[in-house]
Amino acid sequence: MQTKPRINGTTITEFILLGLVETPELWPLVFILFLLAYMTTVGGNLSILAAVLVEPKLHTPMYFFLGNLSVMDVGCISVTIPSMLVRLLVQKHTIPYGDCLTQLFFFHLLAGVDCFLLTAMAYDRFLAICQPLTYSTRMNYTIQRILVAMSWACAFSNALTHTVAISTLHFCGPNVINHFYCDLPQLFQLSCSSTQLNELLLFGVGFIMAGTPMALIFISYIHVAAAVLRIRSAEGRKKAFSTCSSHLTVVAMFYGTGMFNYMRLGSTKFSDKDKAIGIFNTVINPMLNPLIYSLRNPDVQAALWRVLTGRRPAA
Questions:
Q1: What is its membrane topology (predicted)?
Q2: How many domains does the chain have?
Q3: CA–CA separation, 185 vs 95, rounded Å?
Q4: What are the backbone angles phi and psi of residue 183, rounded to the nearest 5°?
Q5: What is the CATH number of the domain that holds 73?
Q6: What is the Cα–Cα distance from 6 to 173, expressed in whole angstroms?
Q7: What is the DSSP letter of 133?
Q8: Per-10-residue mean pLDDT for the chain, 315 residues long?
Q9: Which domain range does residue 195 map to?
Q10: What pTM value is reported for the model?
Q11: For residue 103, which of 77, 149, 185, 235 sits 20 to 30 Å off, Cα-Cα?
């Protein structure tokens, strides 16, 4: 039977998060794996942040944005994984309605800032490679902070819009979420009232939040590619491309998993594939970002080594 929504609003006071696996025997293994993943992600991203702060060679706009991105990655994983670990530890899988909406708000806030920071990093590469003579004036100290502030403002507006919109829906049962954190697609499935306007809002705002940054990144790298191809020496082309390859890898991972997750609202049942995409969004991407940015960058590697060994940078 389909339960009709009540007029007085939300009747559900808590949701049940099924988590990654429903077999109790596997819970200790999941706890250990995700605790290690959380510690690795936080440690890796904070190491990148420390390297950016202590290494004079990394006091550039690109690494200023990378330091901010590392902070956002720590925030994103901290919004979802610790609460999941606590539920596994106490073997209680309920989450209060208010906590669920709070988790949704902060996840979309931090992921939204990530989205715009990646766009700012693409703009930085465009200026550095295509317009090097005016780079220092067009990407000065003030501009960098304005871009970060705008990222926060746009992401806050997006997160608040979706949180307020989801709070207008009626939840009268069932209350079981086949996931390990609260997110829009899963909550849409549980609503007793129509979610058509919410889904249109998600597509509309998503076009602005994701489509516009993707278009700007695409346009930036078309100009970057054209400029790199005009470089006569193979060594020069290789050096120019190496400064962009890490960023492009992160962009592909971030937008690829994000689009798959939010463009499938017509699905009537959420499966393990959706949980896998959730793991990529909340764990794998933030954990791989420090590795991607340090793997082919000797300056970052040297700075990380100094952070880990406690050595001061050479004067």
A1: Multi-pass membrane protein
A2: 1
A3: 17
A4: -150, 165
A5: 1.20.1070.10
A6: 11
A7: G
A8: 42 86 87 94 91 87 92 94 92 90 95 92 91 91 95 94 92 86 89 88 83 90 87 75 81 82 60 77 88 77 77 56
A9: 14-309
A10: 0.88
A11: 149
